[in-house]
Amino acid sequence: MSDLVDPLPPGGPTSRDLPTPDRALVIVAHPDDAEFQAGATLAKWAAAGCRVTHLVLTDGSKGTWDPDQDPAALVAARHDEQRAAATVLGAEDPIFLDLIDGELVSGIVERGRVAEVIRRVRPDVVVGHDPWTRYRLHPDHHAAGRLCVEGVVAARDPGFHREQLAAGLTPHRPDALLLFEPDVANHAETVGETDHARRLGALGAFSSQIATTHLYKVESGAEPGADPAEAWHARERERLATPGRWAGCELAEPFRLIVDQL
Ligand SMILES: [Zn+2]
What is the dihedral of CA 179, 63, 251, 93, to 10 degrees? Predict the structure, then answer.
């Protein structure tokens, strides 16, 4: 039972499996968001030769339930974890904007910084949070979704952030925008067992988040006495198996695909 509205409409996806992009940029609020929501797809693309780059917007400094945790040490640990996870996925070294965790806003300055990265990386596909997903509580996920879609517009149109053009960058228009944790999915990326395994391996790199994100949610819904690691594996497989059934395959990740407005 999810707190969110069921994102998988009857009848299955209207499209499946984009051509493997040459370059993909995944724009996320926090370390581990990309791995949770699109990790198997990113692993699939990387294995097929795509250069995958993470843009992590916040510093992850609020990712703990320990009030005595040193924020600077946590930020450093989460950088290291994100780098390790990217390596497991086959992605490149991540880009960190290090905006303050929990205080992300989709302002003009922040939008400009996202557009600048898009204009530098020049991805064929941009992947990010759906800013319109209902009943999602975390403010950073809404703001990161807005920065993703607005950053795509700003990177594309030459009138936005002209100072970047004066500095030598040129506008860039991706072929596709894929929004994860979608309000209403219309697209599935089918993935295989190897992609699933890489996603699990990448999630395992986020050791500072095990207590809060991984095991707590398992324990809160698991049978009494169940092995937390086994329950976690079962839950994470089901996270891909449910959209897989929707898409008529074994395992898949669901997205909102936007192409017409690019
Ligand atoms: Zn997050």
Answer: 70
